[in-house]
Amino acid sequence: MVADIALARGMTVAGFLDDRALEGQRVFDLPILGGPAWLEVCRSEVSVALGIGENRARCRIYKLCERLGVTLVTLIHPTATVAASAQLGAGVVVMAQAVINPDARVANGAIINSGAIVEHDCEIGAFAHLSPNATLGGNVRVGALTHLGLAASVLPGKAVGEETVVGAGAVVTSDVPSRVVVAGVPARIQRQREEP
Ligand SMILES: CC(C)(COP(=O)(O)OP(=O)(O)OC[C@H]1O[C@@H](n2cnc3c(N)ncnc32)[C@H](O)[C@@H]1OP(=O)(O)O)[C@@H](O)C(=O)NCCC(=O)NCCS
């Protein structure tokens, strides 16, 4: 999906990086170029877009790129709507039909997936992931590395902590702490989240 956005934006996509020694294979008719060792050698010739859904893994790869001095690309699908006053960090990906409204701030490496809505003045932490059709009312805060499942909603002004998971279809009606899994309508804590 991330490569598709880059192509739709008219960028040249050289291929994929993957640390599972899949060099030579092709995905989406593009080559897998190599892993971190390839990036270390070719770091001055390429920019990197983050195509990993899992938040902690995406954060790890972001930090590797940062350490190597590689430029992280921010990608916005042509059908997404991003307000002029919204701020997007490095390595953010905004997918098809997503909406990011005025004065919202989306920190580095976050994913705003297809059809997700980030209302005005929301604050999305680094490496958070809003799944397709997730909806945030105005002034919502979502902590770093938190994952909102498919079509999860957060009522205006509420805060969700860091590294938390909000289940698909949940409706968050009150603040949610860090490192828990919540689900249901209204969202209730199911369990603590295990350490990485
Ligand atoms: C909520 C969630 C994190 C729970 O995952 P889990 O801890 O592995 O839970 P399980 O699948 O073992 O399910 C445990 C129970 O919760 C229920 N459950 C699972 N997801 C639920 C949800 N979103 N809302 C309500 N109940 C849910 C299951 O039916 C099961 O109930 P049971 O014990 O009565 O059978 C997960 O189901 C979820 O919704 N993840 C988001 C996935 C997503 O949207 N991905 C998008 C990718 S782009």
Q: What is the CATH topology classification name of the largest domain?
A: UDP N-Acetylglucosamine Acyltransferase, domain 1
What can be said about the biggest beta sheet?
A: 8 strands, mixed
**Number of separate structural domains:** 2
CATH C-level category of the largest domain: Mainly Beta
Secondary structure category? alpha/beta
Report strand %: 25-35%
Shape field: globular
Number of helical regions = 3
CATH architecture type of the largest domain: 3 Solenoid
Number-wise, the strands total: 24
Uncertain parts:
none
- The CATH homologous superfamily name of the largest domain equals Hexapeptide repeat proteins
Radius of gyration: 17 Å
| Helical content class | 10-25%
As laid out across the biggest beta sheet, the strand order is 6-9-12-15-18-21-23-24
Instruction: Give the rounded overall mean pLDDT.
Output: 96
Distance between the termini: 26 Å
Bound molecules: coenzyme A
Order of helices and strands: HEEEHEHEEEEEEEEEEEEEEEEEEEE
Binding site for acetyl-CoA: 129
Organism: Cystobacter fuscus (strain ATCC 25194 / DSM 2262 / NBRC 100088 / M29)
GO molecular function, one term: transferase activity
Active site: 120 (proton acceptor)
Q: What this model shows, in words?
A:
The active site is at residue 120. The protein is of the alpha/beta class and 196 residues long. The protein folds into two domains: 2-72, Rossmann fold, CATH 3.40.50; 75-192, UDP N-Acetylglucosamine Acyltransferase, domain 1 (3 Solenoid). 14% of the residues lie in helices and 29% in strands. The chain is built from three helices and 24 strands. It has helices at residues 2-8, 36-42, 55-68; strands at 16-17, 26-27, 30-34, 47-48, 71-72, 75-76, 81-82, 87-88, 93-94, 99-100, 105-106, 111-112, 117-118, 123-124, 129-130, 135-136, 141-142, 147-148, 153-154, 159-160, 165-166, 171-172, 180-183, 188-192. The strands form five sheets. An eight-stranded mixed sheet has the order 6-9-12-15-18-21-23-24, covered by helices on one side. A six-stranded parallel sheet has the order 7-10-13-16-19-22, with no helix packed on it. A hairpin with a 4-residue loop joins strand 23 and strand 24 (188-192). The longest helix is centred in the first third of the chain and has 14 residues, at 55-68. The radius of gyration is 17 Å and the shape is globular. The two termini are 26 Å apart. The model has no long low-confidence stretch (mean pLDDT 96). The structure holds coenzyme A. The site of coenzyme A has 12 residues, from strand 23.
